[in-house]
DNA sequence: ATGCTTGGATAGTGCCGGTATCCGAGAAGG
DNA sequence: CCTTCTCGGATACCGGCACTATCCAAGCAT
């Protein structure tokens, strides 16, 4: 497959493919001579993965590169690759540690994890990027005058735990074809937008049920 | 409160506040004379709302303007303002209707809604932006070779329905102080990042439990 | 041989959220 | 009253991001 064919098969313009090659999101093709490079099914697959992450998952290009780096890291065992890749996904800046809302939110969230008994509580509370996003969002709610306590989030967390179990079951059902962390990462990235969409639909539904037609 | 004080109270730079004023995200202050305008608590509140939507919710400025337009639309009853505002939130381009994956995903998702018995099924299936996002994400999954059927999504949808019920309960518990659609919109926008963060934490937790420490 | 295509390098584009600069009108102080 | 400082508004500009357009020399096809 040459670049133009790769483009035709994927629906991604050659210019964009070149850009991804430059950015290291796609490994270079096998160079046949100075003007021809050949790409295979693996490239096509990777290209679709990249596109899905960027377009559907809204993951920034730099983050995609980082995530793929973990996926391809042969020095890590399979389970850890997934962990490392997911770890790299969130793009939340470190919150201002002096902000009183941030401090309060962090304390409250640590308490939440303890209440839930998630092992994160000891292991990675303050380091996980996901935990950071949680703190940032929680602090924003408080700053706006919303009053909540960690206990109120417990049911949310339990439901998301159930969702995570579904995720894992889904992923495991898929691994048959290729035993790659790539598969798992994609699952994580693509399930999220679906979840968000379902959430909003559910809100529309529930709000219609409670308050009548729109 | 003058602009500089508004800035001090909110932590948003005067330049940015001016930008928001220009963009119509913030109503102009009461003009005292040619060089002084006065802002009140309502402005501060609105400013924090805007910041939260943009920074935490990652909502584009143009969308914030649209959402606030609905929130402030006095011609609509309260319940409908929320609906209209939430309706305006997603920013998903219309998918290519000729794409076979999109067509398949749309059919599957319509079936899912029928299975769930959500009233959306009749009322707004093909018009809701959330439904559109769902179709786009589902099509992307299929295009990448993930095999799923509408039934597999049913448990996800049921869990999100439960989440939506929590959302509504939370919002209703908050309406005491100000009976405004603003409150509800914020709930919707800010709960989402928290939910995503909880989801990822739950994945970390569940993946650690299944596959061992990271 | 000639014209077309190929892949690589480089520079440019459009959007978006925000920032810097300039300005004239007033407030503050002596 | 005059100077100096600050205010708010208008305008131009900036930096990051995801592409995209242009150029070029090397090869392939006829």
TrEMBL record, chains A, B:
One Pfam family from the UniProt entry?
Answer: MerR_1
Sorted alphabetically, which PROSITE patterns does this protein's record hold? HTH_MERR_2
Q: Is ATP-binding included in the keywords of this UniProt record?
A: no
What positions does the domain HTH merR-type occupy? Answer: 1-70
Checking SUPFAM superfamilies in the record gives:
Putative DNA-binding domain
Segments crossing the lipid bilayer: none
Q: Name one GO molecular function term.
A: DNA binding
Keyword DNA-binding assigned: yes
**What CDD domains does the record point to?**
HTH_MerR-like_sg5 (cd04780)
Which UniProt key words apply to this protein?
DNA-binding
Superkingdom, taxonomy of origin: Bacteria
Query: What is the recorded name of this protein?
Result: Transcriptional regulator
Organismal lineage: Bacteria, Bacillati, Actinomycetota, Actinomycetes, Kitasatosporales
